[in-house]
Design a protein that fits this description.
Blueprint (H helix, E strand, L loop, with lengths): L1 E8 L2 E6 L2 E7 L1 H5 L9 E7 L2 E7 L5 E2 L4 E2 L3 E7 L7 H13 L3 E7 L7 H9 L4 E3 L8 H7 L4 E5 L6 H10 L9 H8 L7 E2 L5 E4 L21 H4 L19 H7 L5 H22 L1
Parallel strand pairs: 3-5, 8-9, 8-11, 9-10, 11-13
Antiparallel strand pairs: 1-2, 1-4, 2-3, 4-5, 6-7, 12-13
Helix pairs in contact: 2-9, 5-6
């Protein structure tokens, strides 16, 4: 039988398969193969009564290290329209981190009841990203986000205070009219440390990713960074010099796009900061 691991606590894994949830232990063969089951894994299980054993893990299409989860389709990066003020550099780092790991990122601007952020919408829509503007407090815009999540496994990320818990509570309970606080989210966040997938009524799963927002950009070379900025990726072969860094060289297609307002100043500043940092790391690794 094949199912998805939705939770793991104390060496036990809870696998949803054929409409039921089975408590499973990992077979010794996985240890020999140096495979540690992760939340989100598609697992093959053998049953003995109402319990089971995980005998194999299907290949992962994506994964995160912190928290350890796999097969994430999309990452919803939650930012607040105000209180706290959005940190554009952090947003850009999180977008790149998701893409490096093969996860499609989207942006969700919450607290639009406090402020309208057409400026942020314009920057990221122009850059090629999907943007949702919502108010968990007023329950506005939640339906569009909920429909987008259907049949996907989605991780929510963002700094504390942006309203991530309120959004997850609304989405997992599918109570867009009443807004009842989800008891399962409260339990998951406040009394346990485990990561858990919560199933949506319209198909798919969601999970919280505490700590993901603090990750540094790594695993790529400075010269490949532009590939993770969708609005810059099309510059390949269009700059005067091959291997253009898009910073100091003349005849740079990216800087031309910047001067024409087709690339935002904040996105370009994020690119420069990350490029210099990645270049330094690369030189240090050579020594």
């Amino acid at each position: 039988m094949t199912g998805i691991i939705i939770k793991g606590i104390g060496g036990f894994y809870y696998v949803k398969a054929a409409g039921n949830i089975y408590e499973c232990k990992a077979r010794g063969i996985l240890r020999k193969q140096r495979i540690t089951p992760m939340i989100g894994d598609i697992a093959e299980i053998e049953l003995s009564g109402d319990k089971g054993s995980i005998v194999a893990i299907k290949p992962r299409k994506s994964y995160l290290v912190r928290p350890p989860v796999s097969n994430i389709d999309t990452m919803v990066l939650v930012v607040a329209a105000a209180s706290p003020e959005p940190n554009m550099f952090l947003i850009d780092k999180m977008l790149i981190n998701a893409e490096i790991r093969g996860i499609e990122p989207v942006i969700c601007i919450n607290k639009t009841d406090l402020a309208k952020r057409n400026d942020i919408e314009k920057i990221y829509i122009s850059a090629g990203y999907r943007v949702f503007s919502v108010s968990a407090e007023k329950k506005e815009g939640i339906k569009d986000l909920f429909e987008y999540l259907a049949d996907k496994t989605t991780a929510f990320a963002g700094l504390s205070g942006v309203g991530k818990s309120s959004l997850l509570s609304l989405i997992t309970d599918d109570v867009l009219e009443t807004g009842t606080v989800s008891e399962k989210i409260q339990r998951g966040r406040h009394t346990t440390r485990h990561v858990e997938l919560f199933e949506l009524k319209n198909g798919g799963f969601v999970l919280d990713t505490p700590g993901f927002s603090s990750l540094e950009v790594d695993g790529i070379k400075a010269e490949d960074l532009y590939k993770y900025f969708p609005e810059m990726a099309e510059s390949e072969g269009q700059c005067k010099f091959r291997g253009c860094s898009h910073i100091n060289e003349p005849g740079c297609f990216v800087k031309e796009q910047l001067s024409q307002g087709k690339i935002s100043e904040s996105r370009y500043e994020s690119y420069k900061q990350l490029y210099e940092k990645l270049k330094t790391v690369k030189e240090w690794e050579k020594k």
